[in-house]
Amino acid sequence: MADKLAEKAVRKAEKLHAKAEKLHTTVDKLAAKAERLQEWADRLEAIELWRRESPGRRQARFTRQDLARAAVALIDAEGADALSMRRLAQELGAGTMTLYHYVRNKDELLVLVGDEVMGEVLVPDLAALPEDWMEAMVVIGTRTRDAMRRHPWMFELNLDPGFGPNSVRHIDQTLHALRSLDADLDVKVDVVLAVDEYVMGYCLHERGALGPGQPPMDDLVAYAEELVAAGGYPTLEALLAGDGGGVVGLWDAFVRTGADDARFERNLRRFLRGIAADLAT
Amino acid sequence: MADKLAEKAVRKAEKLHAKAEKLHTTVDKLAAKAERLQEWADRLEAIELWRRESPGRRQARFTRQDLARAAVALIDAEGADALSMRRLAQELGAGTMTLYHYVRNKDELLVLVGDEVMGEVLVPDLAALPEDWMEAMVVIGTRTRDAMRRHPWMFELNLDPGFGPNSVRHIDQTLHALRSLDADLDVKVDVVLAVDEYVMGYCLHERGALGPGQPPMDDLVAYAEELVAAGGYPTLEALLAGDGGGVVGLWDAFVRTGADDARFERNLRRFLRGIAADLAT
DNA sequence: AGTTGTAGCGGTACGCTGTACGACGTGGCA
DNA sequence: TGCCACGTCGTACAGCGTACCGCTACAACT
Q1: pLDDT at position A1 over 70
Q2: Is the CB of B157 under 7 A from strand C?
Q3: DSSP run (H or E) holding B34
Q4: How far apart (Å, rounded) are the C-alpha atoms in residues A175 and B239?
Q5: Which of B23, B76, B236, B253 is the most buried (most CB within 10 A)?
Q6: Angstrom distance (rounded) from CA B95 to CA B91
Q7: Nucleotide nearest to B101 (CA to C1')
Q8: Could you say which of B211, B253, B275 has the minimum Cβ distance to residue A189?
Q9: What is the DSSP string of B172-230?
Q10: What is the DSSP code (8-state) at residue A154?
């Protein structure tokens, strides 16, 4: 009798357990969905930044662009670390907390800064863009690279692709550059993204690349030898064993190639050629 | 007489002024050179991180890799902002300042983290890399993308291309992948950099891209209308005027294309094709 | 014209950060 | 055995983002 009761209890417990597990997975799924929705909500909140125009009646001392421009100037001069709310306010001759009337938090300020820089990427005269889509993409890509060269700190800001007026205009202009490409919208968007990705990747690398100069090669070679001793560096090993310039030769090749100014356009054109060839099939 | 004296004085002053100016430009030049050298010194100091092996005799509680692994786990779980020296120390069950015996400052810790992640990019078995250089590059590129998908916060760390063992191994492997490419070292390095740039650019974009989901389209359209009203958005304007899906259609195209899993390899292959075609001429 | 609500401004304070400094105990060598 | 330097870590400080809240002066209404 007691056994039976115990058995029943066990079965009941198992059932409850299974039920609990099911509930658990349901909760997990809901949580995941909620997170996804939250992400979207956050990102769309970013659009809100651009939609809400200074809602007050009274005239404010500054415009948001004033903040953005001052921030860009400050970062250009002293680096991204120098940009703090206090410092920017000081630069503008205002109290720190005043900035929070133009911007909800520092991240929003950075979004402003990002869009300000995107303004420099824009082609001033759309009509001047070449008809040929590949040439037009080279023009836009080069402008982008130039802007990122002026403001290499852009990558330190960790901005997601934004919805600011200038960012949208950049997309618009890039699509405009593709007007001579006979393909449907999805293909064009694919090309827009791909080219933007290459360009940004180039700029990201260029930002961190070493300019020409002479490192203490002894340390370098010593380090390379230590690495090779650990094994698993076939190319390095061959270079050390062979007589073709050794490790220093490889280093030089990287520095030289990294500093080659024609590299950007050369590879961009290679990419565009590859895209065109693929689209032609 | 007094006039003559005054004239003389003026001439002398001018001469001195010119001399001062010359000195000034010299000083500027020297300062620029010093800055360049300083940059190099700083970057080479980074190699020092890898060269200096725990110099002490006594056995330390942790290894640098312990720190790196704990940091990666922490950031994976709670995001890059969660990584502070205090928090990591707590995670390791150590005092905060203890970490500073493994690492000179937080930046060095991040370099360690970066190289740890680069370890995931490495191809486990070099011999398994396809002979064909284009196929081999696709393998390496895909591995890189996968690692960056697992750790999209890598771009928040603002790391320059590093000299850590795994980073060097990645370069080595990539050059190894190009062994079937008949070209001299400079060309190969160009290809290595270009492909790495595209791959990183793709990952950088993917990190910030919106996953599939439904935004509040009304706000979006309203925003687009506001922008078009400002002028200078020909494509957007045409989309709003035309009947081909409108702004929502464009938005969808971006979201759809951004979420297209085949996009990475497709465009990487296009790039490689373009490179091969160019090298063949 | 006078009044008033509030938009714009900013001082203070809190909890967090990275890290300089110095104290402490213990392990390894002489 | 004695020593000392190595690994460990508590404390302190300057600077960060920003929540909270009081103040001032202007735009709008009576």
Answers
A1: no
A2: no
A3: helix B2-51
A4: 12
A5: B236
A6: 10
A7: D7
A8: B253
A9: HHHHHHTTTS-S-HHHHHHHHHHHHHHHHHHHHHHHHSPPS----HHHHHHHHHHHHHH
A10: G
Return the CA Rg of chain B. Answer: 28
Name the residue of chain A whose CA is nearest to B179's CA.
Answer: A235
Contact B44 A219 (CB under 8 A): yes
Closest-CA residue in chain A for B124?
Answer: A232
Q: Is the CB of A96 under 7 A from strand C?
A: yes
Q: Give the nearest partner residue to B198 out of A36, A201, A235, using CB atoms.
A: A201
The pair phi, psi for residue B65, each rounded to 5°, is -65, -30
Looking at residue A110, its pLDDT comes to: 98
How far B30 CA lies from chain A's nearest CA (Å)? Answer: 15
Token readout for A71 is 């921030």
DSSP A242: S
How many angstroms separate the CA of A105 from the C1' of D21?
18
Task: Go through B266-280 and write b for each residue having 16 or more CB atoms within 10 A of its CB, e for each that does not.
Answer: ebbbbbbbbbeeeee
* Per-residue pLDDT reduced to its tens digit, B45-76: 778 888 876 666 678 889 999 999 999 999 99
- Give the per-residue pLDDT at B1: 60
- Both tokens of A10, joined, read 């066990």
At A47-65, the pLDDT tens digits run 888 887 655 667 888 999 9
Give residue B57's identity as a one-letter amino acid code. Answer: R
Record the tokens describing residue B258, joined without a space. Answer: 């951004």
What DSSP assignment string belongs to A78-103?
H-GGG--HHHHHHHHTS-GGGGGGT-
Q: Where are the alpha helices (DSSP H) in chain A?
A: 2-51, 64-78, 85-92, 106-121, 133-150, 165-177, 185-208, 217-230, 234-241, 246-259, 263-280
- The token duo for B64 is 């640098």
Cα gap A266→B194, rounded to integer Å? 10
**Widest CA span in chain B:** 94
Query: How many angstroms separate the CA of A163 from the C1' of C4?
Result: 40
Distance in Å, residue B40 CA to nucleotide D8 C1'? 34
In a 3-state reduction of DSSP, which class is residue B169?
A: helix
- The protein residue nearest D8 (Cα–C1') is B98
Is the confidence at residue A2, as pLDDT, over 70? Answer: no
Record: contact A275-B274, CB cut-off 8 A: yes
Contact A126 B232 (CB under 8 A): yes
- Residue A9 CA, chain-centre distance (Å), reads 58
Average pLDDT of chain B is: 91
> What pTM was computed for the model?
0.89
Bases of strand C lying below 7 A from some protein CB:
6-12, 16-22, 27-29
pLDDT tens readout for residues A178-233:
999 999 999 999 999 999 999 999 999 999 988 777 777 888 888 999 999 988 99
- What distance lies between CA A29 and its chain's CA centroid? 30
